[in-house]
Amino acid sequence: MTAAATLPRDARAAAAEGPLLAVRDLTVHIPVPPHVLRAVDGVSFELNRGETLGLVGESGSGKTLTALTLMRLLEPPLAEMPRGEVVLEGTDLMRLSEIEMSALRGRTVSMVFQEPMTSLNPVMTVGRQIAEPMVRHLGLSTRMATMRAEEMLRLVGIPDPARVARAYPHLLSGGMRQRAMIAIALACRPALLVADEPTTALDVTVQAQILDLLAAMQREIGSAILLITHDLAVIAETAHRVAVMYAGRIVEEAPVASLFAAPRHPYTRGLLASIPRIERRPEPTLPEIPGMVPGPAERPAGCAFAPRCGRAQPRCAAKAPALLPLAPGHRAACWNPEDG
Amino acid sequence: MSATAAAPESQAGRVWARFRRHRLALAGGMVVALLLASALFAPVLAPQDPTLLDTALRFRAPFADWHFPLGTDELGRDTLSRLLHGGRVSLTVGLVAMVTTVMTGALIGIAAGYLGGIADTVLMRFVDTMLCFPQVFLLLVVAAFVPPTLVSISLVIGLTSWMEVSRIVRAEILHLKEQDFVAAARALGASRARIMFRELLPNAAAPILVAATLKVASAVLMESYISYLGYGVQPPLASWGNMLTNAQGYFDTVPWLAILPGAAITLTVMGFNFLGDGLRDALDPRLRMDP
């Protein structure tokens, strides 16, 4: 791309040391009388430049809420709930005003949503939707931005970008729309891309294409990606590191290879065991984790996984374990971790 | 990938295809087009000066004399010329009032729907309050204080009939703002104003357009009411409403003086209503009967 787009990024990269994003003790407690729903409960993680961190968990584990919180996209009355720090390039996003935050959204930190069918504005051409953030954030003229929009469409692998740029979203397939969404999100070359279940709504064959595209765009643009998914296969394919969430907390965090080879938290092990594999075909039933994710009312004082855990000890129910390093780069929150 | 092959087909094309199949709407649209053309070219089409008096030629019957194709009124003025020029006045009032209505209604509806909370409550209670008064009463009160000119009448009508539009727009916005593309726009740094007017408003265009056509019809009717009651367009300027007022004294002897402007009003209101109905059906995405 042109020098105008890359310059501010290089300047930022040179200025900042350490991780691109540091989330510290992020907490979203939602009062649902008579309980308090601890939807996100002291989540901390870091993300380096150009790195992909997978955030995995079941529905209700708090992963999407974490993403929306760090984008500051929660609507009132939820918007008042989050506590903690989200430091992006040295700036704590939690302390920014809405106006300051909207200047960063789409430029420094951007987001791709789950539903490509509804995430595009139905009455605006695709090209215009890609161009708009560039006009807004980079001060490009409409003509310049429209040209760049076509370039972005070509970059995300859309054939005949000039024609697609003039088309309305309903004419595109789901996969094409998700490509367009990625083009929109990356138009201003953000340092961080939050991708919330970007492939969940797509056909399996298209899923792989979109994941490849995300990886290719990361190489091209250098954005760090926070990839949120419930699908461990997606993580295995795309992420460098993984954080596993359970009941609002990160229970294990490790490089992908190390997590898949040697999961330390019993929950992670259970998750991995419940993935169907072709080699295991003789097995009559898929192993599952017994029990259910505890609701807000019955969440125990200690480890939230303890009631479902085969390795639970008395102290598990009494006190929540901290997320501690067990090996270099490998952390788990468990009193009685599996062997490495 | 195959989807791109269909790219040249436009949304407007589909809407037109659906609209075309609605016979009454098509007829309504043609009536409206005809009325607009006749109003636009009234000075050329009118055979006489609409204010020219000739008491020697009072109460000429229609079709009796080709100088006065639709006869003359109690002051010997040409009825056809007055109808054409009156149509100009009535349609101007209708269109200006509609624009005022739609702008006010859309603004209040979108603000209430998108901002929610206290803004929503205050604005919607204001709407409820406005709706408590019969519109004719409101109109007459205001008309008593504001000197009646074309513009003031239009504005007064517009500013007393936007409440339904604001409710329609608010309902539409409440539904639209929950959609993913609004969250996506926020995630890309769009400001509130931008989301309201660039993202949401164009998506609410269909119901607004429908309401707009229906509002032209009701504004034409309103203008007739208040002109009939003597607060509207002042003589000698002709409007369909004040032509009816003048015809009042001669209902029994020269009925066509009332029938002709009455028919013009009916035709206009029906034309716009059918047009609005057709647009509603053509634009409603739930009735997607792909052609």
Automatic annotation (TrEMBL), chain A:
Keywords: ATP-binding, Cell membrane, Membrane, Nucleotide-binding, Transport. This is ABC transporter ATP-binding protein. One of its GO terms (molecular function) is ATP binding. It comes from the Bacteria. Belongs to the ABC transporter superfamily. SUPFAM superfamilies: P-loop containing nucleoside triphosphate hydrolases. It is a peripheral membrane protein. GO terms for biological process: peptide transport; transmembrane transport. One of its GO terms (cellular component) is plasma membrane. SMART domains: AAA (SM00382). It is found in: Cell inner membrane. It comes from Neoroseomonas eburnea. PROSITE patterns: ABC_TRANSPORTER_1, ABC_TRANSPORTER_2. The keyword Cell membrane applies. Residues 21-272 form the ABC transporter domain.
